Amino acid sequence: MSGFNLNILVVLAALFSSLSVAAPLSIKMASIELKPYGFIDKSGRKKGVLYELSDQIAKEINAKFTNTVVPYARAILQVKNGTSDLVLIFANDILESSAKNMGPVLELTNIILTKKNFPVSTLSDLKGKTIAHVTNANYDETYQKNKSIKKFYTQSYTHNFNLLSKDRVHGVVGPEIGLYYTAKEMGYEGDYFSKPLVLIRKNVVLYLSSKFHERHKEDAIKIRAVAQAMFKNGQSQRILDKYNPFLSKAGQPISAP
């Protein structure tokens, strides 16, 4: 091979190498299908608190990304098996053992809602009762481990409220804003509910699939840093406030149901 041709090959190899290095990171994200955290509106547009948070994290690190809205249990499975790279969700045993917890992105208050005619003040009041609960969601350890409280597992808050309206369950459990947002959409407001039983304030965390973390360790560090910054500087809270049924459009508190 002539020296000229060899030089061309060296230049081409360097060019392709630089292009490979410059190629943007690609992330496949899953957003849980629960209003107002991830959903598709009537116009077909995907939106929601955690959907927007995921998008913003990817944009902050200049990554190419896709973001699909899928049921809670499927989002967990997809990150577990690596078909999705990232999800924002409550910490749970499945992902703690099969994915990488990159830290908190948002704090939510988890509650149990019951009808006005069945007020509760402690978990003891729910002994022998049934609570509608989204499959694989871990809202509070004390409640989860209380075997005297029956759990009826479902795929959505909407299903839970339908069960409650028909008296097939005694209450529903979940994040305060998610429950009241859905209840408001379904027309359950005012004095329909009794005072909520507050369980715990709990962090939503960012999980990366083990496959993604292994392939992109440096990028994982950047993702963690961006998520932590959004959590600490209030950006995550501001996105949450956009969907808060207790705030006016001007961001002022309004009466809770």
Descriptive account of the structure:
The longest helix is centred in the N-terminal third of the chain and has 20 residues, at 3-22. The chain has 257 residues and is α/β, with parallel strands linked by helices. The chain has an eight-stranded mixed β-sheet, sandwiched between helices. A two-stranded antiparallel sheet has the order 2-3. Helix 5 (141-145) links the parallel strand 7 (130-134) and strand 8. The model is unreliable at 248-257 (pLDDT under 50). The chain has helices at residues 3-22, 49-60, 72-81, 93-96, 141-145, 157-165, 176-185, 210-215, 217-232, 235-241, and strands at residues 26-32, 39-40, 46-47, 64-70, 86-90, 99-113, 130-134, 150-154, 171-175, 197-209. It is built from ten helices and ten strands. The protein has two domains: 26-107 and 203-241, Periplasmic binding protein-like II (D-Maltodextrin-Binding Protein, domain 2); 109-201, 3-Layer(aba) Sandwich (D-Maltodextrin-Binding Protein, domain 2), CATH 3.40.190.10.
**CATH homologous superfamily of the largest domain, by name?**
Periplasmic binding protein-like II
What quaternary form is this?
single chain
Helix content: 25-40%
Structurally, the number of domains stands at: 2
Termini separation comes to: 81 Å
Strand content: 25-35%
Annotated CATH architecture of the largest domain: 3-Layer(aba) Sandwich
The first-level CATH class of the largest domain is given as: Alpha Beta
Helix and strand run: HEEEHEHEHEEHEHEHEHHH
Strand runs, count: 10
What composes the largest sheet? Answer: 8 strands, mixed
Helix count equals 10
Average pLDDT, all residues:
89
Low-pLDDT windows of residues:
248-257
Cα shape:
globular
